[in-house]
Amino acid sequence: MPSQPSQLPVQVRMLQLITAGWLGQAVSAAAELGLADALASGPRSVRDLAEATEAHAPSLYRLLRACADIGLFDEHDDQVFALTELGETLRDDSPVSLRNFAVWTGLPAERYAWAGLAGAVRTGQPAFPEVLGKSVWDYMQDHPDVLTVFDKAMTELSRQIIGPVVAAYGFGGFGTVVDVGGGRGALLAAVLAANPEARGILYDRPEVIARAGGPLREAGVDDRAQLIGGDFFDGVPRGGDAYVLSNIIHDWDDELSRRILAHCRDALPGDGRVLLVEAVVPDRPRPTPTVSLMDLDMLAVAGGRQRTAAEFEALLRTAGLRLERIVPGGHCSVVEASRA
């Protein structure tokens, strides 16, 4: 029976931590090559997979072998591999697909930013501009291929959080919901589908809005939704009863976050709500390091942060808002605020 992690020598446990980045890079490479999709119809030999993915067969075998060791694939005799339940999450057509997020975390832009983490900790400033010469947002505008992967990755992550959030929080009391920085509209589509009397406004940068709305049409709610382009640092559309910001505030430092929230507060009716969909950093003990590692990613890449409940309360206060409650909704929670 293999040794449990707590039974391993301390230096072996540390070596596993040090090399964990290699594991993530192997997953990213498997995702980029589309190996899960190539195995969707059943087991295949390395030779077949190499032809399907235009890869060097001996090197592909080395990657598949490593991925089998971590549970993505099963290795059979004669270098034949099959997809596992875990590996299914790297299929493009899986409802729980994380393929594009895996590709994103393996891109040089993300990896290089993390390489500058120690410097970011020393200065309190994001590593991305130091390492790559510009902010992550400017970099992606200059590299459309990277932006495409990022957009798909964020869509995948949104798909995982939307269902639990919409089920946990009652949006039915709002006549008009404004999704601020709502991307293509997946969250707003789910809110409107669950609340047939509600109307919505999807608000994002003009270049995002130009290609947005697909989820609204697919859900059959586009007749109840308006798409508006703009910049949330300059303002937000008026007329909403609730202003939803899903994983927006964590991208920014306190001052820029305060500016966004103040615009929402200014547009808010007296009984309206600002709703932040965020992964709230729990008080100790923290059962897993996921949120604290997300917080480091925000530091390295964007200069933002994941926040505790107390930090949200303080931030909201600076924008003229009052924390009402935090509603757990799976991985993310809904941080509800009203006019102070």
What does this structure look like?
The chain is of the alpha/beta class and 340 residues long. The chain folds into two domains: 5-90, Arc Repressor Mutant, subunit A, CATH 1.10.10; 152-339, 3-Layer(aba) Sandwich (Rossmann fold), CATH 3.40.50. The chain is built from 17 helices and ten strands. The strands form two sheets. It has a seven-stranded mixed β-sheet, sandwiched between helices. Helix 15 links the parallel strand 7 (242-246) and strand 8. Helix 2 (20-33) crosses helix 5, helix 2 (20-33) packs across helix 6 and helix 11 (144-168) packs parallel to helix 12 (186-194). The longest helix is centred in the middle third of the chain and has 25 residues, at 144-168. The model has no long low-confidence stretch (mean pLDDT 95).
Overview in brief:
The protein has helices at residues 10-18, 20-33, 35-38, 46-53, 57-69, 99-106, 108-115, 117-123, 128-132, 136-142, 144-168, 186-194, 206-209, 214-218, 254-267, 290-302, 309-318; strands at 44-45, 73-76, 80-83, 176-180, 199-204, 225-229, 242-246, 273-278, 321-329, 332-339. It is an alpha/beta fold and 340 residues long. α15 links the parallel β7 and β8.
Give descriptors for this structure.
2 domains; Rossmann fold; Arc Repressor Mutant, subunit A; single chain; 16% strand; 340 residues; 48% helix; seven-stranded mixed sheet; three-stranded antiparallel sheet
